[in-house]
Amino acid sequence: MTNKREVFFSVDVETAGPIPGEFSLLSIGACSVFEPDKTFSCELKPVNRNFDPKALEVSGFSLDDLAQSGLDPEAAMRAFAKWVSEVAGTNGSPIFVGFNAPFDWSFVNYYFLRFTESNPFGFTALDIKALYMGATGCRWGDTRSSRIADRLHPTSAGTHDALRDALHQAELYRLIWSQLVEMP
């Protein structure tokens, strides 16, 4: 058993397609959920030329542009791991939080293991959609971000910019936690 303090990190990614390994991770945005001024973001060089046109349309990225301006994936993942470690501190246990966490975590985990051999988040992630469903007893179809926003009234919105989306997700997490989980 550990007495480490849990440090929650909202993470969002933009990708070239639906699965890691065959499609590239293009950008990472992250913030500390309860200290959202602590942020990380980067864009990565693609590892191949595979893409789903709809994914690039949503993100607005060009594989050609990222091949020139993006960070080498190993350097990006090492910088991300260093930031997570600095924010978590020596007594912190990093917790990955995402909106549809299985998707984002799968890319982050794959890239950490492929390029650095270690994932600072371990092998799990906390999904905001599942947290909301558990806290409200709603149906899975009611866990869409627009439906959650209708109920909780966040001040931010998702934009398909990884950092802005990570900040929005962090706000949703805090609202769910304060309004639905920590009830008196």
Automatic annotation (TrEMBL):
Keywords: Exonuclease, Hydrolase, Nuclease. Residues 7-182 form the Exonuclease domain. GO terms for biological process: DNA metabolic process. The keyword Nuclease applies. InterPro entries: Ribonucl_H, RNaseH-like_sf, RNaseH_sf. GO terms for molecular function: 3'-5' exonuclease activity; nucleic acid binding. This is DNA polymerase III subunit epsilon. It comes from Rhizobium loti (Mesorhizobium loti).
